Amino acid sequence: MKKFTCVQDIGDLKSALAEAFEIQKDRFKYVELGRNKTLMMIFFNSSLRTRLSTQKAALNLGMNVMVLDINQGAWKLETERGVIMDGDKPEHLLEAIPVMGCYCDIIGVRSFARFEDRDFDYQETILNQFIQYSGRPVFSMEAATRHPLQSFADLITIEEYKKTARPKVVMTWAPHPRPLPQAVPNSFAEWMNATDYDFVITHPEGYELAPQFVGNAKVEYDQMKAFEGADFIYAKNWAAYTGDNYGQILSKDREWTVSDRQMAVTNNAFFMHCLPVRRNMIVTDDVIESPQSIVIPEAANREISATVVLKRLIEGLE
Ligand SMILES: CCC[C@H](NC(C)=O)C(=O)O
Ligand SMILES: NC(=O)OP(=O)(O)O
After folding, report:
1. Using a 6 Å cutoff on CB, does residue 293 contact ligand 2?
2. Which residue range forms the structural domain that includes residue 185?
3. What number is the ipTM of this complex?
4. What are the strands, taking DSSP E only, across 83-225?
5. What does pTM read for this prediction?
6. Which residues are N(2)-succinyl-L-ornithine-binding?
7. Ligand 2 centre from 278 Cα, in Å?
8. Residue 115 lies inside a defined structural domain of this protein
């Protein structure tokens, strides 16, 4: 594997899952593979799970690890080409990227959507500059339009907990005080559409995701109807994608907050969320603390998804 930015990069899902469950049984099985190989993790945005689980995955494989928070300690970076750099940014990304590539073997990048220009975000400008100019294999630690390490962990978790071959999986929008990226819902939808699950997306009108991610999923504007008979509930907030509303909050309707009311019409569904989660905005205390909440095993599987991805990137090194 030469990059990991989307579901297509992992190839056949059944073999990726087999590898994940093998590593889950013995996460140090390939501890020699990464000897004298260096992972560089670059964060343009905050992180807890991605930062810790990806570092742990690298250690599982015997790698050296370097972590850089671009906005703390490094020079402020200009990212636009053609800009006269007479402002507060002393360095351009187009120099910084190949320099960082000199010091490592594999690069992970977190760079969220900026919500200033939809094309800039949806062309994955920052991530693609790392792919083009670093000279190293690059993987996404959540970029502008996807979060594949999260989605792979979500799939592993559903496969672990499902009680039927083709579970009904419902992704529901929920309210949040800030406009959050579409990367997690886009990516979850992309991975769910790559399975044979019964996948439904539910959100208020105006929160339609980009069609290339919705794919063949059923979209249901009535949340209670969507929840009927569900086996898994995946809750997430996202800002509007469509038209002039890009990056905007259209609703903070707390009727969409996942509570016992909605969970009561499911098939005793498991509750999932990528975390961090705003309690009593996205989900009530009772639901996220219930025996059906699997948000912690879901977060634990981030170590497994990252170990599989790093293993395949190391194996792909010349
Ligand atoms: C894994 C989630 C990261 C980010 N969450 C926040 C709070 O910014 C998001 O919603 O994309
Ligand atoms: N789910 C996830 O990626 O969490 P962090 O933003 O804390 O890394």
Report:
1. no
2. 149-297
3. 0.98
4. 91-92, 106-110, 138-140, 168-173, 198-202, 218-220
5. 0.97
6. 142, 176, 236, 278
7. 13
8. yes
